[in-house]
Write a structure and sequence with these properties.
Layout: H1 2-28, H2 36-40, E1 52-53, E2 70-75, E3 80-85, H3 97-108, E4 115-117, H4 121-128, E5 141-143, H5 144-152, H6 157-168, H7 171-184, H8 207-217, H9 221-227, E6 231-233, E7 245-247, H10 249-254, E8 258-259, E9 262-272, E10 276-285, E11 288-297, H11 306-319
Parallel strand pairs: 1-3
Antiparallel strand pairs: 2-3, 2-11, 4-5, 6-7, 8-9, 9-10, 10-11
Helix pairs in contact: 3-6, 5-6, 6-7
Length: 321
């Protein structure tokens, strides 16, 4: 009798074990072959991107002649660093901030055609702070996709705030999402306090962290399309019946994007007095894709654009390898 009870208990434990295995398997598997953990967030994987320095001197690039005190060059197919110069030194990112703003906005927008009304309250503050603007007006109803183009091409601060308010309820709540994203990507020396890049002592990053961000962002087809566009015309709005046409600040300044052995495909410029001239650029050289992030070059909008000079210098040297 005792042995019979023991056998029944043993069978029960076996059944419970099988049931537990089935439950775990169902949780880890889904109809599309992805784990539940991967399906919780419908965005791209947030796994930390690991950059590695090149050990091949034949492809390494010198940083000796750069105007920018901070720089990093990364080959995208294998995330190899081919050149770096004070890449982990704290910098102010200025409008390179908008790479993160756009990334977080794209990943939180369910409908890029949705019209967003721009609150009048933001304009007085942004004008007072001399923020760069795309040209939209208070109470203008603008498609989300056009706000993204307005943010990235002419660097419009009103586009950043309009999207931030709509997505998160306030700029500060949106900035929390930006910092969460930075942490998830392994940007360990980055902290944002605003969505526009306006100067703040506690708003900082490194060119290495920005290269991690841009490598991630370019995997998103919407971001890459915007980042590599030289000109964009918006849809008609209640304030601009004929829309507005934007031109990328990068392409406006470089004129010719052709390199010796490739092309500059796109980029985002940035400038404040404290940050200097900054540039995050994307190029194809000898059939391979690269990103270059530079910061801190002396000059301003009225001087020679030394950040762009650096991009030509680096990519053309790369093409001669």
């Amino acid at each position: 009798m005792l042995q019979h009870i023991r056998r029944k208990k043993s069978k029960l434990w076996v059944l419970l074990l099988i049931l537990a295995v089935v439950v775990v398997y169902k949780l880890m598997d889904s109809s599309d072959g992805q784990s539940l953990l991967k399906r919780v967030d419908g965005n791209q994987s947030n796994s930390v991107l690991s950059l590695r320095a090149s050990t091949d001197s034949a492809v390494s690039i010198s940083s000796d002649n750069l105007h920018s005190p901070n720089a990093i060059l990364v080959r995208l197919n294998d995330h190899t660093i081919l050149m770096q110069k004070k890449s982990e030194q704290k910098i102010y990112p200025a409008s390179l901030t908008k790479i993160m703003t756009a990334t977080v906005a794209i990943e939180n927008l369910h409908d890029l055609q949705k019209k967003i009304e721009l609150s009048p309250s933001m304009f007085q503050r942004l004008n007072k702070e001399n923020a760069s603007m795309a040209g939209f007006q208070p109470n203008e109803k603008v498609k989300a996709i056009d706000l993204l183009y307005g943010m990235m091409l002419p660097s419009g601060a009103e586009c950043c705030i309009g999207l931030a308010d709509n997505i998160a309820g306030s700029e500060q709540a949106f900035v929390d999402k930006m910092n969460q994203k930075a942490e998830s990507l392994g940007m360990s020396n980055t902290h944002f306090t605003n969505a526009t890049g306006l100067q703040d002592q506690n708003h900082y990053t490194t060119v290495k962290d920005l290269s991690i961000l841009l490598s991630y962002a370019l995997k998103n087809s919407t971001f890459q399309e915007i980042f590599t566009t030289s000109r964009h015309s918006t849809a008609s709005t209640n304030k601009h019946p004929d829309g507005i046409t934007f031109k990328s600040t990068l392409f406006k300044n470089i004129g010719n994007s052709t390199l010796k052995s490739g092309n500059i495909l796109g980029g985002k410029t940035g400038f404040t007095d404290e940050a200097g001239l900054c540039l995050a650029s994307f190029a194809q050289v000898n059939g391979k894709e690269y990103i270059l992030v530079t910061a801190g070059a002396k000059g301003n909008h009225q001087t020679e654009q030394y950040d762009i000079d650096d991009a030509y210098e680096v990519f053309n040297e790369l093409g001669s390898k």
